[in-house]
Design goal:
- The protein is mainly alpha-helical and about 260 residues long.
- The protein contains 9 helices and 3 strands.
- It has helices at about 10-55, 65-70, 75-110, 135-145, 155-170, 175-180, 185-190, 205-230, 240-245; strands spanning about 110-115, 120-125, 250-255.
- It has a 3-stranded antiparallel sheet with strand order 1-2-3.
- β1 (about 110-115) and β2 (about 120-125) form a beta hairpin.
- α1 (about 10-55) packs antiparallel against α3 (about 75-110) and α1 (about 10-55) packs antiparallel against α8 (about 205-230).
- The longest helix is centred in the N-terminal third of the chain and has 42 residues, at about 10-55.
- It is elongated.
Length: about 260
């Protein structure tokens, strides 16, 4: 049985990832649509409210701008959209990492080994640092390399670095290196205000860029799942490279 996404012959981990990926894309699309409608409605309400009380003797005619600002509590449309895009990008990278963990664990699930000098068989799990519930990035990359997939591509490394910038620096570009690495001229040109990337400023995202990141991650997931599926359901299901995974320090032994 070969891997075939259209017919559902994929790993369980892939099914979970595909659902999350679809939700992320829907959230990006629908939230942009709904928020645009809500902001337009709120702007009109501010204009109407000013029209009802407008007095040329005391009003300048642009007071509706402040009224709108107060109504949205200072969260202007471009900031709201940036927050949505940042959320989707961070969720997408995290979903990718979760897939890698679940997929590798699925391959070794159900296998056990006998350890010399220790009673009973031991189940296998991915090596996890003490005090953590998930393996580290290096373990995930190494495990999938052993299984036959290169998951630490340049696109993946860049996306993980951007996720770090968004998560730990709220998107702030703190030096020239960050500006050069993460600037996006297309996103800057499409922004609602003139604002080039600069040190101390916030990284520009944009729907096209975020979707591009999701697409790049999806490509790596699909490639990796072909190998995973072969070990779980396909031709290699009796050939799981347990010794190689153990030699690469990817496994922990858990007593049954």
């Amino acid at each position: 049985m070969t891997w075939d996404e259209a017919h559902g012959t994929v790993s369980r981990a892939f099914d979970d990832w595909r659902k999350t990926d679809a939700e992320n894309r829907a959230f990006l699309k629908l939230t942009a649509q709904w928020s645009a409608e809500a902001y337009e409605r709120q702007w009109k309400q501010a204009e109407d409210a000013l029209s009802e009380v407008f007095d040329p003797e005391i009003h300048d005619g642009d007071e509706h701008v402040d009224m709108f600002h107060d109504a949205v509590e200072g969260l202007w449309p471009f900031s709201h959209q940036w927050m949505v895009e940042a959320s989707v990008l961070k969720n997408g990278v995290t979903a990718f990492e979760v897939y890698l963990e679940k997929a590798a664990q699925e391959v070794i699930e159900g296998w056990s080994v006998t350890v010399e000098g220790k009673p009973g068989p031991h189940l296998l799990r991915l090596k996890t640092p003490k005090g953590f519930t998930s393996p580290g990035w290096k373990t995930l990359v190494t495990a999938h390399t052993v299984l036959g997939s290169a998951v630490e591509t340049p696109d993946v490394e860049w996306a993980r670095d951007l996720r770090h910038l968004l998560t730990h620096q709220n998107g702030e570009l703190r030096d020239d290196e960050a500006v050069e690495k993460f600037r996006n001229a297309d996103a800057e040109d499409a922004a609602d205000f003139l604002h080039d990337a600069h040190v101390g400023g916030r990284v520009h995202l944009g729907v096209e860029r975020v979707v591009g990141v999701l697409d790049n991650l999806a490509s790596v997931v699909r490639h990796a799942d072909v190998a995973v599926h072969a070990y779980v359901w396909g031709a290699k299901r009796r050939e799981v490279p347990l010794e190689e995974l153990h030699a690469a320090k990817c496994l922990d032994l858990v007593a049954e």
